[in-house]
Prior knowledge:
By secondary structure, the chain is α/β, with parallel strands linked by helices. Helices cover about 45% and strands about 10% of the residues. It has helices spanning about 5, 20-40, 50-55, 70-80, 100-115, 125-140, 155-175, 200-205, 225-240, 260-270, 310, 325-335, 365-375, 380-400, 425-430, 435-460, 485-505; strands spanning about 150, 185-190, 215, 240-250, 275-280, 305, 320-325, 405-410, 415-420, 465-470, 470-480. The strands form two sheets. It has a seven-stranded mixed sheet with strand order 1-7-6-5-4-2-3, with helices on both faces.
Amino acid sequence: MSETEAATIPRDSSLDISSARLEEFADLATRLVTDYFTQITEVPIFPQGSVQALVSNLGCEVPLEGEPIEQLFADCLKILAGNRHNGHPRFFGYIASPATPAGAFADLIASTLNANVTAWRSAPAATEIERLVTRWLGSVIGYSDQAQGLLTSGGSMANLTALLIAHRTKSRDQSGHKGLWNSGPPMTIYASEEIHLSIPKAADILGIGRDQIRGVPCDNEFRLNPQELRKAIQTDLRSGLRPFCVVANAGTVSTGAVDPLAEIAAIAREFQLWFHIDGAYGAPGTLDQSKRHLFAGLDLADSVSLDAHKWLYVPIDAGCLLFHDAAAAQRAFSSSAADYIKVHSDREGEEFAFWDYGIELSRRFRALKIWMTLRYYGVRLIADAIAGDNKLAAYLGERIEAAKYFELLAPVTLSICCFRYVPETFSAKLVNASEQERIETEAQLDLLNTEIMRGVQRGGEAYISNATIHGKFALRMCITNFRTTQADIDKTLQIIRAAAQQIIEANS
């Protein structure tokens, strides 16, 4: 046997499959995806029956031998049925936009390539696409046409990375050199009381500590109060502490509130603080021309986080951190690299490495699905979809205010609406009630609305979640879905009413 003939014989342990089997895989996968997209409006949003039983029936032992393709895809259908479906037009529970076909198929292509986007040398084209996509995202939200940054698993990782860069930048500024991470007086962070849980979590991870985050009071619309921010900073300075960062919201996850970004930016600049904006949910809201004024000052931030999978209709995971000063990020992560990851190149640009700007080393090709989504649909159509979500939330707010037995609990700023169900008997109890009676009635209302939420979720026809608004349990509907219509809003209110009536009758 010649060397050429020997080279064409696959090894016994090869995982390649025949062309016929490959086509069978492709056909079955394409059919599954196509059916899912075309039937998503008809499936129950919440799994009906025991998910544990469903999974256990798929087999609990590690398979030692291969199984037929047909069985695998039949079981995949069962797994799909056992999940919540955020692509359904009446899924309002969490901030997670549905995937588009363009994004889903782009993810398949990215997985096929299986590029590890650590640096230019390991994935040249993927690296260039990611750098292009970050510039696009910076331009789309009005941050910068020349924004730099990197894609992350989500807003939590983006916020963690931003706080690390901020802390190392400002500790260097104040100490004159790197290395005084925890020496000297504590360094403090300022954020509104409505800040996302990823911020205190990041402070814990970085060793700053949750107790060094100052929760700044908000106004009646749940926006950080700049006057209170200034007072908090001045108080800490007089106490010998070291303020270093202020975090603002561009769309809170509870109500969609947008902080007064320009005013906060001015205060951050005055006290030489790093200014970070958590725009994981709301930053794409700038594409809605009627909402753009809310985001004035976003371009003044040192860093901004956003999630394309929250409101740009891209599959998870597609978070992003943007920043103006790439050198500051690089200084925060610079270290003596191990020999095997050192970059040796004499060509400009080829020495670029994402590990110089973020936490992850192994990184998947997240950019392709954003790139394909933006190119296939175009920014104008995506902007129309976002504006449509906002209009539906406003419509929902109007229906709540006009409807009997409903109470709107927060202004509708973007695409989130918070409200509760208040039967007439409870309304009567709250009129001229003593303080103790009011407390007891509010507790009963909280319990009732909790049961309503669970009843709606388990029913499978709609999915809502909750928030705490001024100490009250609120039903929360977040609309980030291009499939949702006014009919879906009306239908969901009917479902809520029916669930409430059923609970009241059962308890009477």
